[in-house]
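Narrative of activities, Objective 1.

The group set out to show that a structural description can be obtained from nothing but a protein's sequence at a throughput compatible with the screening campaign. Below is one input-output pair from the validation batch, recorded exactly as produced.
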Amino acid sequence: MLDMMTFLSIAAIMLGSLLFGALVLHVIPRLGSPGRALSDWLCQAPGLDLLVTYFTALPMIIGPILAGWIGFAAAIVSQVLAVMIWTFFHGLLHPAARRGPRIVNFLNALVGPWRNFLAVWVTALVVPVFWIIRVSELIVYPFLVWLIRFPRYKQSDWVRVSRHKFTNLVGHDLIWCLYCDWMTGVWSMGSEMLRNVESFWCPIRFDSSKKCANCHHDFPDVYNGWVASDGDMNDVVNILKEKYGEASINSWFGHPARLTVEGEEPSSQD
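Output recorded for this entry:
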């Protein structure tokens, strides 16, 4: 009985905190130009990092600290309920958009409402993974910039959300589109950073032609400089000398920094 009371208490406090946070986000843009400026800041890194942490990671950190696995379960339940409650009321406040054409309605008809509903929540299981990737981009990659002169990035060019501005995107569609908005930016910037890692330390093409074909979209240097899998270490050292011997920034071979005039600031950097 005590465990149930602990669970309910933590879940209620976290649910209230999450819904209050969502309410604040709706109020901020209505506070004149300072509010709109703050809202814009919260829609891109680093403001967005704080926002995502508050709604996704913080409950799952605080819950276990307060009550172990019971607190963790309470955190998950409160997050799910917060999304569903916000979804319901946001749709209720936008009746015309709710009754109009919607992504959720089409997909429900395509695969079935329960399949669509469950599948969307399955994707939510990877939120902690993307959050950890984002933390790595913030605290790991800067050391590579400092230690081996990897290029810096204006992270807000990737980590930002804007789909809330799309006309008639409400409720269920809006919350999941914002999730995808954040997720794709985090993933794309991680891929960009990994291009520097792969080409700097391991510029050797994969032995599998199928893997090369699959990976070259995310790692263009596979076909743009990496040594063939049947080459030798002389080839590898030579390509390293060619690509990095005179470089001031140790970027992947197709990075914009290699396409600018010497001394000119690359567009992808701070």
